[in-house]
């Protein structure tokens, strides 16, 4: 039998069609995206990804040479804007092709290896993920397990540090899963430094939504994703290492087993305009625009906008007659957790509000709550009104007793009072 793919010069369209018809895996029949996506985009008010500004969406549709002069200029600006957002003067700012988790893994896998003593302060799902990543690189991992909806006391943290003598400590700034804010982050870093440990902070949901000052607080590594506080697309993340952390990365003798996440290889692209892997150029351009918008707004104003919107949302939700999940003492503002009455499940609420009101909110890994994000573009007044209204209507539709006018009124009052 002749192989029709062999003699390409005699591969007429008829022959090619005949060959394709004979392929063992037939072409599937699929629907075009236009018939899959809703006519009107859903309002993304969950725990990320969040709505993106037009400038970000436009940048995300452009492809340029990943190693040309234009890209070099873009990278330079991304790094300097990232330094502002991280509040660091460190040279060691890098981008990561991957989700927030890839940036977490870059931090962990470059600083820890077999035998490294790591202490992970575990407040929930995401801070637990860093402990798991450290275990996977062979580190000796101790955890300080904190009860749901609580933060550990400074005493407990000091004791854990004394007991385990960690070289690296991992901690989350805002634990998105149960909406807990590690509000003593500065004190935790102080304790860690006094004990000679490097501190890795997961700021995926908090960066640019609330104050975090990498240098002034003495943090060694800060990581963030694109699709949360920064309101960029998912898939391109940022990480910054302090000089001390970079020194440890440089001095290690065994290479990082994660080739893509090796910070010394990534440095070649992010600092020397050389090749590591083909950077996600469109995503980097999108991130550039997201960072530029943060700079235009300024961090001070952005923090104030987040605070005002999140508090108004919290007031609106409580006035509906629903309870916030986390006590005020450690309540995160960038993601608001809402306890549900026993008669409805998170799944029912999320499905209904999406289908009936075109608003997306999130459940949370088995907890009896729904979560509404207050990150980046989610903190806009018109989005809040639509969301509180949709949530109130949804609860009513599902037979729960809420005071919808009171919720909307409280939202308005709270927003006006803080204007
Ligand atoms: C979302 C999130 C992550 C994980 O980010 P991905 O982009 O989903 O990998 C990690 N930590 C925190 C605090 C988060 O909110």
Protein topology:
Layout (H helix, E strand, L loop, with lengths): L12 H9 L11 H4 L6 E2 L9 H6 L9 H18 L5 E6 L2 H12 L5 E6 L2 H12 L3 E6 L8 H11 L3 E5 L1 E2 L4 E2 L3 H10 L3 E5 L11 H4 L3 E4 L11 E6 L1 H9 L11 H10 L8 H17 L1 H22 L2 E2 L10 E5 L6 H12 L1 E2 L8 E5 L7 H17 L6 H14 L2
Parallel strand pairs: 1-13, 3-4, 3-5, 5-8, 8-9
Antiparallel strand pairs: 2-10, 6-7, 9-10, 11-12, 12-14
Helix pairs in contact: 4-12, 5-6, 7-8, 13-15, 13-16, 14-15, 15-16
Structure, explained:
It is a single chain. The protein is an alpha/beta fold. The protein folds into two domains: 54-297, 3-Layer(aba) Sandwich (Aspartate Aminotransferase, domain 2), CATH 3.40.640; 298-418, Aspartate Aminotransferase, domain 1 (Alpha-Beta Complex). It contains 16 helices and 14 strands. It has helices spanning 13-21, 33-36, 54-59, 69-86, 100-111, 125-136, 154-164, 185-194, 214-217, 243-251, 263-272, 281-297, 299-320, 346-357, 381-397, 404-417; strands at residues 43-44, 92-97, 117-122, 140-145, 168-172, 174-175, 180-181, 198-202, 221-224, 236-241, 323-324, 335-339, 359-360, 369-373. A seven-stranded mixed sheet has the order 2-10-9-8-5-3-4, sandwiched between helices. α7 (154-164) packs parallel to α8 and α15 (381-397) packs antiparallel against α16 (404-417). The radius of gyration is 24 Å and the shape is globular. 48% of the residues are buried. Bound molecules: pyridoxal-5'-phosphate. Pyridoxal-5'-phosphate is lined by residues 48, 99-101, 126, 172, 174, 176, 202, 204-205, 225, 228, 234.
